[in-house]
Amino acid sequence: MANLLQKPSKATPVGSTRWIFLQMAQCWRVVHVTKRRGCGTQKRGSSKEIQSIVVNQSWSVRYSSSGKHLAITTEDNIQIWNPGTRERISNFQAHAANFSLAWTPDGTRLLSGGNICDSTIREWDTSTWKQVGDPWSGHTRDVNAIAVNPTGTLVASASLDNQVRLWRLSDRRTIAIFKHSGSVLCATFSTDGIHILSGGWDEKISEWVVPEDALPDSKASFHP
C-alpha cells in the first residue's frame, strides 16, 4: 500500500479535465460571492435573511471546546449560537465572505478566515465578540481552513494560494510557510503539536514538521 503521507508533487497539468473543472468551480465561488456582495462593505440583513443564509450559505461550523458555543460562517457575517437553546447570541461582520473558523482551546478567542477579497485571518475576543488587534496578513487568496495547536499558541492556515502558514498567536506573526503544488483545502495539527498535516488539489496528505524554535513558545500560555 502506498504511503499516504507524501510530499507535494507537480501540479496537475493545466490541460487536464479535472484541473479545468476545479478552476471553474473556484471561479464560480469567487464570482458568486463578489457579484452578490462585492469586496466592499456589506449591509447587515434582516433576521429572516440571516436565517436563510445559515441554511444555504454556511461554509464552516465549529463548536467551542466547552460545547457552550457554536460558531457559523455565512457569506454576510459570523454568527454565534447557544446549541442548547438554539438561540443566536451574537452576529458580526468580519470578512467580505467568511470561509473558515477555529476556536482556541481555552475558548477565549475565535479565529476567522476570509475569501480573496479579504484573505486575512481575524481574531475575536469571545467575551465581547470584538476584533483583537489588526488582521493577520500573508495569504493572497481564500483562507480555506484554520487549525490551532493543542496548547493554543500556534495556528496553521490553509489557502488557495498553495500555502500552509504557521503563525504564533502571541504576536500574530508568520513563523513558517509550507508550499503545496496546488491549492490547499484543509490543515490540522498532530495531537502532540509537532506536525501539521494538510491536503488539497494535489491529491496528497502532506506532513510538515513544526520548526524547533517554535516549539518552546508552544509551552507558554496563550496570553503574552
CATH class of the domain at 97-219: Mainly Beta
Over all CA atoms, what is the radius of gyration?
18 Å
Counted by DSSP, the helix tally is 2
Structural class: mainly beta
Low-confidence stretches: 1-38, 41-53, 217-224
Distance between termini? Answer: 46 Å
- Average pLDDT, to the nearest integer? 77
The number of strands is 15
Strand content: 35-45%
How does the overall form come out from the CA principal axes?
Answer: globular
- The name CATH uses for the topology of the domain at 97-219 is Methylamine Dehydrogenase, Chain H
Helix content: 10-25%
N-to-C SSE string, H for helix and E for strand: HHEEEEEEEEEEEEEEE
Largest sheet: 4 strands, antiparallel
CATH H level, superfamily name of the domain at 97-219: YVTN repeat-like/Quinoprotein amine dehydrogenase
**Major beta sheet, strand line-up:** 1-2-3-4
Query: What is the second-level CATH architecture of the domain at 97-219?
Result: 7 Propeller
Give me some keywords for this one.
single chain, 224 residues, mainly beta, 15 strands, disordered C terminus, four-stranded antiparallel β-sheet
Explain what you see.
This protein has helices at residues 17-36, 47-56; strands spanning 60-63, 70-73, 78-82, 87-92, 98-103, 109-114, 121-125, 130-131, 143-148, 154-159, 163-168, 173-179, 184-189, 195-200, 205-209. With 224 residues, it is mainly beta. The chain has a domain at 97-219: 7 Propeller (Methylamine Dehydrogenase, Chain H), CATH 2.130.10. Strands 1-2-3-4 form a four-stranded antiparallel beta sheet, with no helix packed on it. A hairpin with a 6-residue loop joins β1 (60-63) and β2 (70-73). The relative contact order is 0.13. Residues 1-38, 41-53 and 217-224 have low confidence and may be disordered.
